[in-house]
Amino acid sequence: MTEQYAPTAADVGRMYDQSTGLLSEVMGGNIHLGYWRDGDDDASVEQATDTLTDMVAERLALSPGARVLDIGCGSGKPAVRIAGTWDVHVTGITISAQQAQTAGARPEVGEGNGQVSFLQADGMDLPFPDAHFDRVYAIESFLHMSDRATAVAEAARVLRPGGVLVAANPYQQGELTPHEAEIVADNRKLFEIPPIGDADEYAGHMAKAGLEIVEMLDIGENVRRSHTVAAALIRQAQGAGGSAFSEELSRAADIIERFGELPQIGYGLIVARRP
């Protein structure tokens, strides 16, 4: 796989159609990484992934009644948590038909405050009018988009003046050796990711879209444990299928673990405001 490898939206959708059930089981109902305060933090993976959701929500500066967009809603759990805790309505989109169906079956679906709605849609071509949402967030979804500039521009387009965008994403910081580049390439292929990019790339896209950067926080060391935990739990799931399936899971666990060990892989919370 070359550095120019760029999965299509359909590629990403198929990957999540197949993997969301396992990833959700492994990551405590969410499918994003978790946040641990330090090495002594004994939070469960569910608590840690919920904490990351809360960190995103806190930076949105939500008020009751706000209309919020979740780009890449995954299992729907973050949207439900944010809607219920902050008494807002969250619309979640996902490129995965399976995710849209699963999230759409949640009992919290509705149009009122504290409720959620879900639909299948492409983050690079949002099906909403301009200035439609008070707040927008994207947890580990811009990562998968082959045209991130367009994805960020679309998020800015549907955001009302004064609104806030929060993006949470892994990114690369520093050069990789050939062996390390191989590890990153394996992870990219596993999760259908184009070149990972760095924090400045995301900030540049936001500035070009007319957004003002409010905060850039690297929490790479706080989320790093997620990869080790996920790999261990995936290995435990190996016995759930035949030998070919077990081999596939074992290889996936190895890739995830090696990727998480790379010090050049950071993780950023980027907060931007539309003037």
TrEMBL record:
Q: Which residues form a coiled coil?
A: none
- Stored InterPro entries: Erg6_SMT_methyltransf (IPR050447), Methyltransf_11 (IPR013216), SAM-dependent_MTases_sf (IPR029063)
Tell me yes or no: is Plastid among this UniProt entry's keywords: no
Q: Indicate the segments forming the Methyltransferase type domain, all copies.
A: 69-166
Q: Which UniProt keywords apply?
A: Methyltransferase, Transferase
Listed GO molecular functions?
methyltransferase activity
Q: Name one GO biological process term.
A: methylation
**Secretion signal span:** none
Q: What is this protein called?
A: 27-O-demethylrifamycin SV methyltransferase
Organism of origin: Streptomyces venetus
